[in-house]
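Continuing from the previous page of notes. For each protein in this section, the sequence appears first, followed by its structure tokens. Read the first protein now.
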Amino acid sequence: MNHPLDRPIWSALTTRQQHFAEGGALARRYPPDVTPFADMADMSPQNFAALGELMSGSEIAVLFTPDVVTPPAEFNVLLAKPGEQMIGMPAEAAVPGVELVSLGAADVAEMMALTELTKPGPFGLRTHELGTFLGIRIGGKLVAMAGERMKPGDYTEMTAICVHPDHRGRGYAQMLLGAIARQIAARGEIPFLHAFSDNASAIALYQRQGMTIRRQLQVTVLQKRAP
């Protein structure tokens, strides 16, 4: 691994977010109610075995890796597709009359409902513990949000960037993205994010905001086969 962003999950779980890590030297994961992300020190059979020992029942492991993952026979591959890793400082944006609010444990039900509707990626009961989350409320209802997730080395990932379908096209995503990025930069860290390679509209939005593609990663979702 030449750069912390080449294996961002492993980097995060062995540096700034090691307090979340379940596992050890061979394989690590976040607690499933935080996020299903996991990774291994390398793709050796013993490391896959260690990953499997961390998983139970129908749990999944989501990997972000530089290369295509070919797991042993005891795993099913539920998803395998490329994603773009983007880096940079999005342009600051404001929407007249709209204010950002901090989100936390009291807002989890609404946050999960919004992410279930908009599908920005995995979001669980404890995902908000990974970092700052900001939202926009209209008429008391949470209609948009964004936050922080993986923290590998000096980098912090922006995540859960989503807007309710009834409130799109109003600049909310740009406003949230800029605000989260500036919070990250104020701490001396570098913002980055991920988008599936086939999500052309999201990638175009981030590029318009001033972000650039750093590299492509492979996103793989694994589940153990039933015995």
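Done with the first. The second protein uses the same format. Note its length before scrolling.
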Amino acid sequence: MRRFRCTLAFSTALLLGAQAPTPLKLPLPTAEGASLQAALKGRATVRTLVGPALSLAEAGQLLWAAQGENRPGKRVVPSARAKYPLELYLLSSGATDLPAGTYHYCASGHTLTRLADGTPGTVLGAIKGMQAWIKDAPAVFVVAGEASRIGEGAPALNLTYYEAGAAAQGLLLQATALGLGAGTASGVDLGAVTQALKLPKGTQALILLPVGHVKL
């Protein structure tokens, strides 16, 4: 089932008229950076985000902290009955080893698949009321979810929200450990984000996490 989910990126790209994408293999996650205690102490919402854009290694470390595998078939973030309803997407403004575009993360292979062109500004900027610090960020991570993987109704949706919160906290702490600035975007039209990203049917955007370097 997890392998099938990772083919969603491939199918979405074909529906958008793009050529079959070749997944980018992300560098293996490292244990470098600040300690957990230091990351917890230093975690804070930062809205003054500037470039340069995130490198492939930085993006990979953040994605792994939110939804990566830390043992075969099991992820860093706990999931109800190991159903894994979350999907992670990345909007990048473009770095030397990570071109601008919209990407989908595959946990089982620790890869990124490019889905479409565009930057956070071009993809999110057209959404009414989108805050400047979000669309101008060098990178925006989107935590999306498909609650039906867990079950039906409010219980499944609540469990998906809980897991999304845990994934977001993992990414935010990892950003702090890497010396990056990040925050959770509030007051965002998540339905419009879901449409802008052309997410698969049944999948909806839950949390936006702008990330970049801290403006001094």
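What the second structure shows: The longest helix spans residues 153-177. The chain has one domain: 2-25+33-214. We return to this in next week's lecture.
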